[in-house]
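Deviation from plan, reported transparently: EPU complex.
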Amino acid sequence: MSEAVRILRDAPLDRRNTFGVAARAPWLAELRDAGDLPGLLSRPEFRERAPLVLGGGSNLLFAGDPDAPVLALTGQDVRVLRDDGTAIVRADAGVQWHGFVMHTLDLGLAGLENLALIPGTVGAAPIQNIGAYGVEVRDFIHAVEAFEPASGQVHRLDAAACRFAYRDSVFKHEPDRYIVTAVEFALPHAPTLKLDYAGIGDEIVAMGIAAPTARDVANAVIAIRRRKLPDPAVLGNAGSFFKNPIVAQAQAEALQAQYPALPVFRGNDGTTRKLPAAWFIEACGWKGHRDGDAGVAATHALVLVNHGHASGQQLLELAHRIADSVRERFDVAIEPEPRVIGAAW
Ligand code: EPU
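Because the crystal trials were delayed, the predicted structure below was used instead.
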């Protein structure tokens, strides 16, 4: 195995999860070159259980220690593979997402501007099909390269094979089947800006810009996110803790008849509607709530926060109380967006 592999035993994960909760991995491997995966996964400590692949640690909650070895891919290669009006850009899984978005804008490429400032890595982006401000990453994914431990093969999945849906993909359905090693994006030079979602257009106007560029949109998104979402470097969190529930159109209409202020969004198809979990959580009085060091952000009801020394278990208990109260009051089930490790939801 090459020198690009580093293996640690009984490794602390506190700084490898954006909630900043304490956890330890039985084994931790950092691997720069995905070509070293077969060798690593044949070692006894990595062979028995499918490893937990850690990106930026921004979409998981350690409610306990993982019982599997942990793997972090650290490759940083970014390359334009070809460019005929739409560029195909390939980035290693270990590249930081926000830096990558800004780099594509530097290259004069558009598409990812609404996804600026999302924490995490390129490799994590397709797993839950990250999305914000009216754009989902699936809109710009050309292919995902993934190593399949069972076959020892590297697969190149096109967007259809990834089976993307709202915060969902084949990688989330079968978490142990693939290890995402790189992602190819198809990015146009000529932007089709999406300004209609939640405050982007207003923000651009407030910035005094009449004819926005893709970079202006990224700057607007960055400004909105900085106002609403706590910076994990300052206050531990994993972004939205709950997914927005998707319900039948009839249930959405019944709820809206009873609560006219409830916003209703389009679902995955014409028969479903997406409802803002944050609205229900705020209505139940949780916004800004604090139980010791486990709390709900004062600026956004969907974000659970660690005020200092909350344990993953305490955050999970708070999440359960929140979900129970929303179910009791509105008969709507809300589910965590991050992966919960070391406990069942
Ligand atoms: N709302 C409240 N109270 C709040 C916050 C929001 O009632 O404290 C209501 C408002 O009515 C608002 C609606 O919820 O109109 C939607 O709020 P927002 O635009 O902030 O978006 P969201 O649905 O809460 C989703 C994503 C975010 C993404 C934003 C912006 C999910 C689970 N979350 O949040 O993604 O940044 O839209 O596009 O889909 C993440 O996934 O970690 C994440 C931060």
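The chain has nine helices and 20 strands. We consider this an acceptable substitute for the interim report.
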